[in-house]
Amino acid sequence: MQAHWREHHPGRVNVESKPGLPRWRPAKLQTFLRGNNLRYFMVSDRSTPTTAGRRELESQSSLETSMTRSFWQIPHADPRETELDWLLTHHFFETTSRNLSLCATRSQDAWRDKMLQHCATHPFLRYAVLSITASHVAWRCVDVRDVYTYQASRYLQMAMDRMSRLAGVTADNFFAFLNFCRLMSACCLAGLQRTVPDTDTACADREAVVPTWVNVQRQGISLLRPHRQLMMKGLHEPSPRLLNVQMREMPAPPSNVFDARLAALMSLTAATGVGQSGVSHAVLLELRRLWALTSTTDDDSRLTLRDAALLWSVRVPSGYLDAVEAGELAAMLVLAHYCVLLRLAEEECWYTKGHAQALLSTTRKRMEPSLCHLLSWPVKVVASGCIGEPNAYMHDEQVHCGADVTVELRMVVKEADT
């Protein structure tokens, strides 16, 4: 096998090959044929989670491609990498990169290859990739979930430690920095998804209406804002397009199957005067605009449901989040309707699953029991997913709900005045 490697990759037998170039890997267990593809892999003396865990990861990684091809696609990052690092990198190459929904489908391969090239020279990005990939394995494989949940947390801490050593953001490392921020959001969502309900983290998260992952999203955007000029140059496609949308003014909302409901709610929040700053009214308009962009015919502007749901959480002003935490009725109603968009996004992205129900449940608990019936439409849609038949949950309520909500909101205002 080493002779084959010398013939096809001259000058690259040394294990300490330059970063980004394929290298020969000595291995105890090497080759076998499967169909027309030659498959071989490394077995390390280093400790790995479990034999069952390795076996499950290998089967999930779909390593059917020849490793000669994969060596060119997956560059060497660190000669000290473990067998688990290597297997997770392959899983990202074959599976996880296609399930993150971080770029358009047509750009997935280009984004994946560029990510792996940058992982070879930016350890903070590399460990972030390994963390989200371990989370993906944990989500897919119930029998090894605890093992890979631990590994995801370990890699995440390593990524954050390496990130803290970054001297500054430049044009050379901006792609890695941008995608690190985006992966942190995904890692947070995936981590909370696996949180056991009676743990301290889960309890702490339930005490606040605004979930932890929203704050992580917003912190990531705040880190990117000073470097907007690097993003706008378009040199780092396909990643920044969605964040360009986040940083520009939104157009008026086009036709959307859910927009009639949102428009009715918008007119009610404006007419009742709930929320003296009008922040809930403005935030609802933002929700309408982002939601509408999921069904536009303009390819350059169209967003996935996942993109729209997560972008809304970073576009809303801090004043709105304060209103939510204060339990302001209009703010809570808007948040409940946002849960519908978040629920629909779950059909596109594995690490968003379960968050809509959790957020809506928290919202209901913070509202007065006598007002919880105002959330009947979001509750129905979130419970069912409302996939394919959105109007089935809108028609009956659209006739009566407007007047009922108006009366309730006005009564709340009068009680507050007295």
TrEMBL record:
<feature type="compositionally biased region" description="Basic and acidic residues">
    <location>
        <begin position="1"/>
        <end position="10"/>
    </location>
</feature>
<protein>
    <recommendedName>
        <fullName>Transcription factor domain-containing protein</fullName>
    </recommendedName>
</protein>
<dbReference type="InterPro" id="IPR021858">
    <property type="entry name" value="Fun_TF"/>
</dbReference>
<dbReference type="GO" id="GO:0001228">
    <property type="term" value="F:DNA-binding transcription activator activity, RNA polymerase II-specific"/>
</dbReference>
<dbReference type="InterPro" id="IPR053157">
    <property type="entry name" value="Sterol_Uptake_Regulator"/>
</dbReference>
<feature type="region of interest" description="Disordered">
    <location>
        <begin position="1"/>
        <end position="21"/>
    </location>
</feature>
<dbReference type="Pfam" id="PF11951">
    <property type="entry name" value="Fungal_trans_2"/>
</dbReference>
